[in-house]
Amino acid sequence: MVMQPASTELAARTAAVISEMKNLEGPLIPILHGVQEEFGYVPQESLPIIAEALNISRAEVHGVFTFYHDFRHNPAGRHVLKVCQAEACQSMGSDAIAAQIKQTLGIGFHETSKDGAVTLEPIYCLGLCACAPAAMLDGEVIGRLDADKIEEIAEEVRK
Amino acid sequence: MSVTIYVPGDSGALSLGAEKVAKAIAKEAADRGVDAKIVRNGSRGLYWLEPMVEVVTDAGRVAYGPVAAKDVASLFDAGFVTGGQHKLSLGDPEKLPYVAKQTRLTFARCGITDPLSLEDYEAHGGLTGLRNAVKMAPADIVKQVTESGLRGRGGAGFPTGIKWKTVLDTAADQKYIVCNADEGDSATFADRMIMEGDPFVLIEGMAIAGLATHATKGYVYIRSEYPHAIAVMTKAVEVARKAGVLGKSVLGSSQGFDIEIRSGAGAYVCGEETSLLNSLEGKRGVVRAKPPLPAIQGLFGKPTVINNVISLASVPIVMDKGAQYYKDFGMGRSRGTIPIQIAGNVKHGGLFEVAFGLTLGEIVDEIGGGTASGRPVKAVQVGGPLGAYFPRALFDTPFDYEAFAAKDGLIGHAGITVFDDSADMLKQARFAMEFCAIESCGKCTPCRIGSTRGVETLDKLAQNIEPEKQLALVTDLCNTMKFGSLCALGGFTPYPVMSAINHFPEDFRPATVAQAAE
Lengths: 159, 518
Ligand SMILES: Cc1cc2nc3c(=O)[nH]c(=O)nc-3n(C[C@H](O)[C@H](O)[C@H](O)COP(=O)(O)O)c2cc1C
Ligand code: SF4
Ligand code: FES
Ligand code: FES
Description:
The structure holds two protein chains of two kinds.
Chain A: H1 6-21, H2 28-39, H3 46-54, H4 58-67, E1 79-84, H5 87-90, H6 94-105, E2 111-112, E3 118-123, E4 135-137, E5 140-142, H7 147-158
Helix pairs in contact in A: 1-2, 1-3, 3-4, 6-7
Chain B: E1 2-6, H1 11-15, H2 18-31, E2 35-39, E3 53-57, E4 60-64, H3 72-77, E5 89-91, H4 97-100, H5 118-123, H6 128-134, H7 138-147, H8 160-169, E6 176-181, H9 190-197, H10 199-213, E7 217-222, H11 227-242, E8 258-263, H12 273-280, E9 304-308, H13 309-313, H14 315-321, H15 323-327, E10 330-331, E11 334-335, E12 337-344, E13 350-355, H16 360-367, E14 377-382, E15 389-391, H17 401-406, E16 415-420, H18 425-439, H19 445-462, H20 467-484, H21 488-492, H22 494-503, H23 510-517
Parallel strand pairs in B: 1-2, 6-7, 6-9, 7-8, 12-16
Antiparallel strand pairs in B: 1-3, 3-4, 4-5, 10-11, 12-13, 14-15, 14-16
Helix pairs in contact in B: 6-10, 6-14, 7-8, 7-10, 9-10, 9-11, 18-19, 18-22, 19-20
The complex binds flavin mononucleotide, iron/sulfur cluster and FE2/S2 (inorganic) cluster (2 copies).
C-alpha cells in the first residue's frame, strides 16, 4: 500500500475535527482548539480547509487564529510549562522563579529545549494567586514554587 | 463503620498537593482496613491551610491542615478518622476565625458539599431559588433581583436587575444568557472557586436569568487557563440536564433552558463583554462600540444578558431568601456581600466573603494577617491589573464601589494583591503598561501605541535619562489613554500607573532611580 501523502492525512484529520464541531453556534474557536488538540498546534494548511468548511474567507480564519495567544503556529515540546508572571505572583518573587527556571531548563520564554522536551511560556494568572508563585505543567497546577519544586519539574520533563 | 473524608479537588488545593494526599489517604485506609469514603469537595478558601482535610465525626466535621502526603500515616496513627488530636488539628472548621467572621451567602456551600452531587446541593438549600422563580412571572423575578441591590461583580458594578429588564423588554425570537467566566484579573479566583466547588449555584443562577428574560440558551465562557473549572462545569451541566434542571423544561415549567460550556483562548481582553461576545461568535476578540448594548443586540445580534459568574451565582440566594434579606447586608449603594480575594504576599491568603464596608486596612492587616514575608506592607493593588495601588495612608478606605472611586481606585472583581517593602513601584507601573501592550485588542491607538510608548518611557526613567521629562510624558500618555480608549483596558491602565507615581514618588525620583541604576 502506498503511504498517504502527509497533506491528505492532515486534511482528513482537520475535516474530522470540523465535522464534529461544525453544528455549534460560532464554531470557529472550538474548531481551532480541536485542531490544536489533534496536532499539538494549528498547521497552516488546516486554515483554508476550515475557511472552506465554514464558508468564510481565509483572511478571517487567519485573523482569528493569530488574535488568540493560545493557538500555536509550531509544534510545542513534549511538555509545556507555563509560569505565572502576573502581579500576585510578582509579589512573591515570580521574577526570580522564572529566572531560575530558565537557567535550569536552559531556555527562555517562548522557547523549546533542543531535545524537544519542554516549551516554556509566561502566563498571566492561573487563579492560584493565594498560592503564589504559580505555574502549570501540561495542565497540572503547581503552587508555592520554590527551588525544590523547580527541580521536580525539571526531572519530570527530562523523563 | 464507614467514615467520610473530604479532600478538596479545588485547583488551589491541587496546586499544593491535594491529589497526592487523597491517594495516600485511600491507600492508607485500604491498608488498615478502614472503610473510607473520600469526597473531593471545593475549597473553603483558606489557602494557607490547604490541602485542608476534613473528617466527619459524631461531633461534626473536624479539620486538619495543611496536610502533606507524608503526614497521612501519622494522621491515621492519631486516630483522625474519629477526630483524634494531631499536630495539624484545626478543630471544627466552622469555628476557625477566618470562617466564623465571614457572611457566606454566595459561597454558602463551597468547600462543604460534594460539587457534583445534586442531592447534596439540594440538602444544603440549593434549587429553592429556582423553584420559587418557576412559579413567578418574569417581570417579578426581575423586580426581586433589582430590589436586592445586586450589582455586577465583574468590575463595572452595573445593577443586575436593570440589565435583565432591558433584555426582558426587548422582543426577539431568541435571547441568550452569557456567563462571563474569563476571570483574567490577577488576584482573583472567586469565579474559579465557585465553578469548581459549587457549580450548581451558577447553573441555578443562569436558569433563573433565563426564566426572567425568556432566554432559552446559556453559554459559560471560561478562560482556557482554568481546565479544572471547565471539567467540573461540563460535568455539572450534564448532571443538571439529567435531573431536569436544564433542558426542554426547567423543573417541569413551560420554559426550557440549556447551557453550553465554551473555552476562551488566552486573551485577557475577552473578559470585556463585547469582546467576549465576538469571541463566542468565532471572531477576533475585538471590543465593540456601544451602543448597541448587548442587552439589546448581543450574541449573534440577539438580546443578551451578560453577567459575571459571581453576579449570577448570587441570584439563587436572592430568589430564595428575598430581596430584603440580601439588601440588608452592605453599605451605601453597595448592597449584599462581596467575596474578597486576598492574594500575593500575604499570610492568610484566600477568599473572604463579607458584607461591603470593611476597611482596606482591616482586610489586609487583620484578616490577611499582614505579609507572608513578615516585612512591612508597602502597597496593595485592588481590582486586578487595571486597579490602583493603595499605600498604607489610604487603608481607612471602606470596601465600597463609590468609596474606592473617590480615591481614584476601583474594586473591580474584588481581588487584592499585597506587596511588601521590597516592591519597586516603578517596575509595577512598567508592568501595567506592558500588560496593556500585550493584551490590547488593537482597536484604539492610545491603548495599542500608548502602552508601548509607556513602557519605553518608564524604561528611560529607570535609566535616569531626562527623568522629569519622562514623568511628564507618562502623565500625559495616561491622560490620552484614559480619555481616548474605547474600553477599560486602555482606559484604566492609567490607574495602576498613576497611583504608583502619586503614592510612591520616592520610587520614581531621579536620585533613587540613579542610585538603583548604579
Ligand atoms: C479589559 C476588560 C476585562 C474584563 N474582564 C472581565 C472578566 O474577566 N470577568 C468579568 O466578569 N468581567 C470582566 N470585565 C467586565 C465586563 O466587560 C462586564 O462589565 C461584565 O462582564 C458585566 O457583568 P456584571 O454586570 O455581572 O459584572 C472586563 C472588562 C474589561 C474592560
Ligand atoms: S482600549 Fe485597548 S483593549 Fe479596549 S477597545 Fe481600545 S484597543 Fe481594544
Ligand atoms: S497572579 Fe499568578 S496565579 Fe494569579
Ligand atoms: S476606537 Fe480608536 S480611539 Fe477608540
